[in-house]
Amino acid sequence: MDQLRIKDLEVYAYHGVFQAEKEMGQRFVLDVCIDYDMTRTARTEDLTSSIHYGILAEQLTGWMQGDQVDLIETVAFQLVQHIFETYNFVSKVRLEVKKPWAPVALPLDTCSVTIEREKKRAFIGLGSNMGDKGQQLATAVSKLEEKGIMILQTSSQIETAPWGGVEQDSFLNQVVEVETWFTPQDLIETLLEIELEMGRVREVKWGPRVIDLDLLYMEDLILYSPDLILPHPYVAERAFILESLNEIAPYFVDPVQRKQIRQLWEAVKETKGS
């Protein structure tokens, strides 16, 4: 991938744990690498599809000299966030924040942190069986966009019987394909945050819910952790998920089953019919 780099940009700013750092300020040094396709710009010299490094340097300086924070980890994360929000064609950012005047009473050249984030595609399952179900799904999609998650495709909304054995109203379900620079853990925490904002209360497992947001896939990532399993452990068993996925991404390959969605959907349909 093509890459723009700004190396050793010096910015005087007021970040740090100690009050003196916030009052007196100090020198920070930035090293940023940004990946995006430069083909159109190279061929046409149209800067609207590229990044003017002079403007970017000014933006980085302005962003750094904004709100004061304690940690350079926060500074680096916020700068990466600003870059993705300002330039939607950027696919990857690697940014190092150096703190050469760090208050450490030992001989050292500099202290620094580096944050690297890359845009990935993911599939999210949505469901609701309380209130105006269609409006609940639409609200959830809007909230995803408000959190900086780009919606690429949305499936049709389909009505399904409740799954899990709890007697309750039918569900309205949908799957959306999104693009995000969030890590898997960031993304799942964002989904939980949206559920909370919309009033979901977790009382009965697989019980009624205002909104349910499940992270189904994040490209071909396979992940097993106490907080998150990818792909979603029930994705290949739930016909309503596969039906919606088949509508918008029939040739996506499940990294565990090693089959295309359309093949998993056909297998589930055959099982239901037998």
Automatic annotation (TrEMBL):
It catalyses: 7,8-dihydroneopterin = 6-hydroxymethyl-7,8-dihydropterin + glycolaldehyde; 6-hydroxymethyl-7,8-dihydropterin + ATP = (7,8-dihydropterin-6-yl)methyl diphosphate + AMP + H(+). One of its GO terms (biological process) is tetrahydrofolate biosynthetic process. InterPro entries: Dihydroneopterin_aldolase (IPR006156), FolB_dom (IPR006157), GTP-CH-I_C/QueF (IPR043133), Hppk (IPR000550), Hppk_sf (IPR035907). Gene3D superfamilies: 3.30.1130.10, 7,8-Dihydro-6-hydroxymethylpterin-pyrophosphokinase HPPK (3.30.70.560). Its EC number is 4.1.2.25, 2.7.6.3. The keyword Lyase applies. It comes from the Bacteria. The keyword Transport does not apply. Keywords: ATP-binding, Folate biosynthesis, Kinase, Lyase, Nucleotide-binding, Transferase. Catalyzes the conversion of 7,8-dihydroneopterin to 6-hydroxymethyl-7,8-dihydropterin. This is Bifunctional folate synthesis protein. It comes from Streptococcus rubneri. The gene is folK.
